[in-house]
Design goal:
Layout (H helix, E strand, L loop, with lengths): L7 H6 E3 L5 E3 L13 H7 L3 E2 L2 H10 L4
Antiparallel strand pairs: 1-2, 2-3
Length: 65
């Protein structure tokens, strides 16, 4: 059985934490910023974890188990 290849698009978007969870950037910060509040934009700059339902699929795309 050959090794699984890493999905390179996913590798650029997701990072694995020390505990094995997956970090990601938040969406909705690229354009139309004038209609968003400063508080919203500040919150969107912070990273968050991938939800439990998607975590298995993302891990497989990263070929990390």
């Amino acid at each position: 059985m050959p090794k699984m290849k890493t999905n390179r698009g996913a590798a650029k978007r997701f990072r694995k934490t020390k505990n094995g969870k997956i970090k990601r950037e938040r969406a909705f910060l690229r354009h139309c910023r004038s209609s968003k509040t400063t508080k919203q934009k500040r919150r969107l700059r912070q990273q968050t974890l991938v939800c439990a339902q998607e975590e298995k699929r993302v891990k497989r795309m990263l070929a990390c188990g």
